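Changelog-linked ticket: shikimate-3-phosphate example.
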Amino acid sequence: MNDKVIILIGFMGAGKSSVAKWLGQTLQRQVLSTDGLIEQKTRLSIRDIFEQQGEVVFRKLENEVLLEIKDQRNIVLDCGGGIVTDQNNLNILKNMGLVFYLSAKPETILVRVKKSNHRPLLNVGDPLKVIKDKLNERDIFYKQGQEIFTDGKTIAEIGEEILERYAECK
Ligand code: S3P
């Protein structure tokens, strides 16, 4: 197996973190998450960064942490859902390894994120509308990864699908 980074992109609730954890355990690779790196760097939660400093500052931090890890190999990278809306970030990710887009229907995403309150962008009156609008906006970016549709699949099934495709792309 090669040492290219396995990169997971996609909307909140697509299952990136769970699948990244599964891949890390299965491949014995370190898992990094851009949100986690930002929280370590700032010592603030993502929610606090949004509340206290705003989305623009958060997006800048996403770019900074990506530049800090761009030369890493042999890891699994779990990306925050909006990081790819800056094409520069997406280009960095493509240079690091293979980019997989975990997709899901908006209704499925809503069910999956309902339980969490740490996602500031969805703490709004009509989260389904926000999900649909943002998916439309981000489609052009997400589709630059290899799409893996996640509805109705277990974490292990999604992980296996990624590994099969990863093995094909040398
Ligand atoms: C965001 C997704 C979140 C987090 C932040 C913004 C987005 O990450 O980075 O709340 O813009 O889609 P997850 O996709 O890991 O939930």
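Closing comment: Example verified and attached. Residues 5-168 form a domain with the Rossmann fold fold (CATH 3.40.50.300). The pocket of shikimate-3-phosphate is lined by residues 12, 16, 35, 46, 80-82, 119-121 (CB under 6 Å).
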